[in-house]
């Protein structure tokens, strides 16, 4: 017979995540004499959230465990009724609790019972040890205080104990009667995002102790057991010093169930909660030494916790964690150099094919294949970013093997393109290289985390140092290869240097393990396989459909089918990520909704738009060089010299951020102003004519100066918008958005450009030819042959010149439409920048990660 369950929709109070807590620790004072503390009673604001789903696990109690979920429903045989006698509670009752705990929890070598409290739904007029059920989500200690308690109570054994694992676990149970209303509800600790955890000081006249509050997240999963009896209860993990298990803590509280009470027979909830520390290092069993909690008159929503002498009574609540002096060792700088090299080299295929892709396609007698070269690379890197991102939360060896594998894949991709004998091999090599580049470009966050946070923007620039060389020099060497050498040499040299980067990372790059530290079996089991399949199944057809828009009409089945199927599957992916049961989703909701999207979502949108502007400039400027400022790219040296202006401008912008960013501060305004400059002057490229090269170069350079400043700062924003342990997720998502935005922008720009040029060319050519003396009846014949090489021989020079000028004007019209289109994207980007949260408070001296094979490895929180 099935067990009857009663799921709840209830109300709980959560701490509000105020910006104030970046500089001032949350606190609450329990004192009648506030003048002694010289501040308001509390700086805590609570949020009341209704309609929270709480699942009844009656009948499924054995499916939950203390280590994995942070709580464990239990049954017990404790025989004790004298709950009105504190002395007997501290003696007989705690003896039985200690025995229960040691039997129920494996691995425990001893216990220290130091606190108990009784809570009653309707507090009576007598009984000093009573408190009301707590509606605020909390745990009874924080990470700092559990260490302090061990040191205080364990004396000389404390340091030895703290080298091992210590858990603070609460035992909770009803006293006499079945609990119908105000049951204890518990949260699966694995669903609590780290940014939602707040250490809070509880201050009395003589003592202070830290407890933990939690801010609201829709991803929190709540449970309770309906109608618990006196022989049932909970083990609740308040804090765990180890990170090797599923849940580090279990936030909990009490809720009204709406139970219909018969006042004559109803028994209000009465429960007792015992707090104890449990080390996994052998110690003598120590039983309750501190005084029980004495709860005086307070409002029913105020929480009462044992307070201990962990700081002197006159000490104020601490501010931010004190910073140690950051030290970047020579070995770290060596690894930084290797990471930057690998990152930049992975980008080689893009400027090569942007410069000479059409020539390479012509060499293989397959001109249409030119549309696929860069598109294949962008598609692969976009999908690669997301796949590697889902693996990053369970990265068992830090980022080491991800980056090493990236060097290997990119090495292979370079060789495939270099050895290509047909267009298909080029596309295959670009695809392999793009997939590997997604891993190599993890350096954009793997490198900055080795440097102080205040250098985060500089670290992102350093990661791109080799990219500057690539975008400035490679277009020149590529054009030289087509015109007098061998374009394949770019890929051979790239492969050789990528191999050196592989060896450097293999021998010297040893980051710590990822903070989740999951065992391999658990990690593989908990991967978001469904999310990966749905994302690839949705994004790949969309990206293919976008590429097809440059080859087929927009109503062709190649375009329509791919886009429709892709968007349908992508919607399914979004639904799965939001409502599925994956423990490590590809796109965790809390990352996007943190501070109403201002921490991560807004910078991500800005990042996509900034990259879209790079692609608009990368189409407009080379096109103008080829069509208007040189004779189809000849002489090639002049074309190559003009093409370097874009890369140099980006480099100068990045260097400006590096040298002046920290002096200016006001990071959000730096971001907004640099993006605005990029958008304004990029849009002014719409003023292009075949003759105003100086003005066009000026606008392009100023726009790219803004781009160089904005792109790297925006990447830093996305990194700082998530906690350190979610940096892999941030890098994957932001990289995916960045390159997906680029793919969409490139397709849109090429589509509007191609359509505009196709529309204007016959119109402008016919008008120009007629004005040059061609009769109206001869215009149809001219329009059939003006693009052929023989045209210059069959028509007078004046007509040829006029038609050539008309073709330039048609191309300029297409360029103008690209600039106008980019303005629409740019406005969205400026709005996104205005929504970003300033990161000045996070620009501190802290180094998040030290190399494990270096002298400061002990500073790592995780190893």
Q: How are the SSEs placed, and which strands pair?
A:
Blueprint: E1 8-15, E2 27-29, E3 46-56, H1 66-69, E4 71-75, H2 86-104, E5 112-120, E6 130-131, E7 138-139, H3 143-154, H4 158-163, E8 166-174, E9 184-187, E10 197-203, E11 208-214, E12 222-224, E13 232-240, E14 252-254, E15 270-279, H5 330-345, H6 349-363, H7 370-391, E16 396-399, H8 400-418, H9 423-440, H10 443-446, H11 456-463, H12 465-483, H13 489-508, H14 520-525, H15 529-548, H16 557-579, H17 589-593, H18 601-629, H19 636-664, H20 667-683, H21 693-720, H22 727-771, H23 779-785, H24 791-794, H25 797-835
Helix pairs in contact: 5-12, 5-13, 6-7, 6-12, 7-9, 7-15, 7-22, 8-9, 8-13, 11-21, 12-19, 15-16, 18-19, 18-20, 18-21, 18-22, 18-25, 19-21, 20-21, 20-25, 21-22, 22-23, 22-25
Give an overview of the whole structure.
It comes from Exophiala mesophila. GO terms for molecular function: oxidoreductase activity; transmembrane transporter activity. By secondary structure, the protein is an alpha+beta fold. 50% of the residues lie in helices and 11% in strands. The protein contains 25 helices and 16 strands. The strands form three sheets. A six-stranded mixed β-sheet has the order 4-13-8-15-5-6. Strands 1-3-12-9-14 form a five-stranded mixed β-sheet, with no helix packed on it. Mean pLDDT is 82; it is low at 125-129, 284-323 and 393-397.
Write out key terms for the chains shown.
5-stranded mixed beta sheet; 50% helix; 863 residues; alpha+beta; 16 strands; Growth Hormone, Chain: A; 11% strand; 6-stranded mixed beta sheet
């Amino acid at each position: 017979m099935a067990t009857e369950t009663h799921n709840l929709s209830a109300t709980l109070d959560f701490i509000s995540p105020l910006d104030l807590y970046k500089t001032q620790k949350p606190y609450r004072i329990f004192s009648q004499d506030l003048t002694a503390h010289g501040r308001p009673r509390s700086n805590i604001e609570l949020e009341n959230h209704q309609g929270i789903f709480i699942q009844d696990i009656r009948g499924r109690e054995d499916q939950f465990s203390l280590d994995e979920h942070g709580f464990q429903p239990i049954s017990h045989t404790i025989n004790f009724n004298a709950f009105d006698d504190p002395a007997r509670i501290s003696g007989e009752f705690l003896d039985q609790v200690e025995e229960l705990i040691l039997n129920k929890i494996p691995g425990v070598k001893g216990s220290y019972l130091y606190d108990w409290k009784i809570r009653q739904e309707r507090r009576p007029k007598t009984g000093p040890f009573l408190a009301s059920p707590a509606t605020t989500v909390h745990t009874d200690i924080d990470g700092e205080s559990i260490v302090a308690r061990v040191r205080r109570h364990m004396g000389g054994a404390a340091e030895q104990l703290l080298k091992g694992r210590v858990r603070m676990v609460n035992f909770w149970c009803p006293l006499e009667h079945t609990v119908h209303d105000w049951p204890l509800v518990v949260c699966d600790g694995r669903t609590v995002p780290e940014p939602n955890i707040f250490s809070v000081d509880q201050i009395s006249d003589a003592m202070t102790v830290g407890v933990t509050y939690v801010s609201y997240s829709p991803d929190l999963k709540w449970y309770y057991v309906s109608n618990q009896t006196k022989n049932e209860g909970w083990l609740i993990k308040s804090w765990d010093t180890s990170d090797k298990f599923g849940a580090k803590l279990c936030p909990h509280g009490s809720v009204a169930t709406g139970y219909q009470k018969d006042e004559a027979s109803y028994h209000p909830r009465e429960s007792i909660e015992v707090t104890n520390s449990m080390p996994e290092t052998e110690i003598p069993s120590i039983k309750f030494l501190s005084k029980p909690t004495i709860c005086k008159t307070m409002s029913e929503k105020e929480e009462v916790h044992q307070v201990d002498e962990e700081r002197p009574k006159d000490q104020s609540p601490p501010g931010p964690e004190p910073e140690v002096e950051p030290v970047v060792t020579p070995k770290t700088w060596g690894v930084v150099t290797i990471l930057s090299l690998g990152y930049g080299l992975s980008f080689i295929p893009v400027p090569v094919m942007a410069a000479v892709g059409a020539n390479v396609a012509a060499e293989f007698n397959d001109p249409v294949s030119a549309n696929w070269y860069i598109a294949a690379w962008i598609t692969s890197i976009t999908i690669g970013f997301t796949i590697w991102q889902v693996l990053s939360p369970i990265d068992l060896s830090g980022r080491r093997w991800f980056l090493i594998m990236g060097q290997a894949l990119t090495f292979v991709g370079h060789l495939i393109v270099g050895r290509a004998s047909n267009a298909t091999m080029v596309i295959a090599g670009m695809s392999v290289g793009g997939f590997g580049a997604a891993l190599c470009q993890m350096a954009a966050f793997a490198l900055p985390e080795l440097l102080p946070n205040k250098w985060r923007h500089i670290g992102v620039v350093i990661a791109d140092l080799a990219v500057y060389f690539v975008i400035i020099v490679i277009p020149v060497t590529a054009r030289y290869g087509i015109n007098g050498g061998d374009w394949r040499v770019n890929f051979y040299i790239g492969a050789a240097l990528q191999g050196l980067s592989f060896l450097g990372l293999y021998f010297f790059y040893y980051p710590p393990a990822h903070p989740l530290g999951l065992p391999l079996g658990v990690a593989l089991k908990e991967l978001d396989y469904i999310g990966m399949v749905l994302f690839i199944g949705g994004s790949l057809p969309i990206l293919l459909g976008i590429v097809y828009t440059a080859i087929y009409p927009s109503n062709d089945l190649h375009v329509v089918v791919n886009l429709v199927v892709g968007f349908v599957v992508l919607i399914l992916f979004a639904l799965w990520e939001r409502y599925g049961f994956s423990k490590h989703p590809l796109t965790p909701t809390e990352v996007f909704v943190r501070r109403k999207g201002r921490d991560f979502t807004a910078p991500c949108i800005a990042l996509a738009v900034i990259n879209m502007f790079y692609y608009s400039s990368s189409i407009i400027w080379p096109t103008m060089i080829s069509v208007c400022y040189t004779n189809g790219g000849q002489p090639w040296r002049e074309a190559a010299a003009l093409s370097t202006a874009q890369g140099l401008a980006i480099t100068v912008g990045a260097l400006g951020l590096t040298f002046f960013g920290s002096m200016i501060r006001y990071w959000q305004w730096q971001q907004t102003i640099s993006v605005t400059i990029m958008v304004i002057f990029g849009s002014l490229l719409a003023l292009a004519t075949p003759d105003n090269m100086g003005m066009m170069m000026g606008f392009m350079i100023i726009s790219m100066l803004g781009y160089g400043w904005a792109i790297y700062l925006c990447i830093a924003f996305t990194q700082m918008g998530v906690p350190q342990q979610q940096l892999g997720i941030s890098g994957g998502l932001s990289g995916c958005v960045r390159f997906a935005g680029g793919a969409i922008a490139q397709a849109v720009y090429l589509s509007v450009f191609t359509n505009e040029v196709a529309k204007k060319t016959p119109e402008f050519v016919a008008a120009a030819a007629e004005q040059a003396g061609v009769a109206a009846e001869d215009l149809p014949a001219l329009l059939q042959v003006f693009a052929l090489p023989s045209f210059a021989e069959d028509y007078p020079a004046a007509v040829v010149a006029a038609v050539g000028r008309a073709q330039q004007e048609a191309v300029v019209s297409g360029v103008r439409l690209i600039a106008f289109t980019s303005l629409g994207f740019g406005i969205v980007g400026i709005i996104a920048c205005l929504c970003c949260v300033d990161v000045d408070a996070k620009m501190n001296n802290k180094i998040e990660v030290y190399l494990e094979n270096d002298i400061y490895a002990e500073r790592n929180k995780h190893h």
